[in-house]
Amino acid sequence: MNTLETANFKNEKVLIRVDFNVPLNDQNQVTDTTRILAAKPTIDYIRAQGGSCILMTHFGRPKGKSLEFSLTHIKDTVSEILETPVAFCNDCIGEEVEKAAASLVPGGVLLLENVRFYEEETQGDFEFAKALAKLGTAYVNDAFGTAHRAHASTTVIASFFPNKKYFGKLLENEVQAIDKVMQTGEKPVLAIIGGAKVSSKITIIESMLDTIDDLIIGGGMVYTFVHAQGGTVGESICEPELADVALNLLEKAKAKGVKVHLPSDVIIADNFSNDAQTKIAPVAAIPDKWMALDAGPDSRIYFDQIVKQSKTILWNGPLGVFELETFAKGTIALGQSIAEATAGGAFSLVGGGDSVAAVKQFDLADQMSYVSTGGGAMLESLEGKELPGIKALKD
Ligand code: AMP
Question: Which of 79, 98, 157, 262 is deepest in the core (most CB within 10 A)?
Fold first, then answer.
């Protein structure tokens, strides 16, 4: 892998594709700096080597240029986090920007305006990529969150730097974490796939069957399986049209020797709210007018045992409606089990769905081996696809 350590950045003007698509409040203040902090090691490394940094990012989904999606809102936060003055250009291509890039001194940092102010960015336009490429002498991609997009600044631009294109540290870490689960993971390998719907997770499960030893199915997905096997699901979320797909998946898992674990008991509620009436019910016997919204106490103990016997753990998707406190217990318990397994030497990757939000909300992120920064990009990686942004760095 062409990592930063394989390069010498002294006096290079390094075009770095970062993902600074951060949330803002009503006063246009950054409310979550995770993504800027995540790019800092790469920027610090290049500056310390005597290179200068030209930062490119998208921000929201603008239609043309607009103040609402301008990076002026975040430039001061970037400067604070990088602990250095950051110059700003109110465009990302053109003569003015070229001058600003040319005048950068070693260690200097320049933030370009939103690359998505040009529709050519998402179109993967060659000429636009060429105009961006003119600004630098080397290219680094550190934007895992957009690595699944074949955009100008994430993919096409790499072809202008055949001998000077590199994985940023964040991208390197993400790729290594995925490899640890999908290719080199110590056995037994466990995947925990939760979340709302079977339809959005089917490809991931199928692509993982050759890799994993155990599969825990949790969350709303469970009830499509229960229904397919002849159980009653009441008002629980269910995709009856996928019954055959669900049964087929269980057959495939069996044929490949993968042990599939469903919850044995669940928390059912008489409505979808925090103050609903709740009861514990067997997973396959949910009464009429009741809906299952979390894993039950027996399931939590059972899942804990499966987690503790695993050496490599992937977690994608919560076990219940964790956004409502009443139905968060299954997800919290699972997070704690994974944290304990990790402390005991297992490798754990949390990624590609609301489980990332859950581990952050319940203060468990630090206790996981790796928490992915990319939603869609992680999902596509787990589906076994090679991401265009990553392929472009290798070709
Ligand atoms: P995903 O983005 O696929 O990881 O799905 C996350 C969503 O699944 C969260 O918003 C959860 O509230 C939801 N979810 C988990 N369990 C259930 C359930 N039993 N019924 C309905 N929604 C659920």
Answer: 157
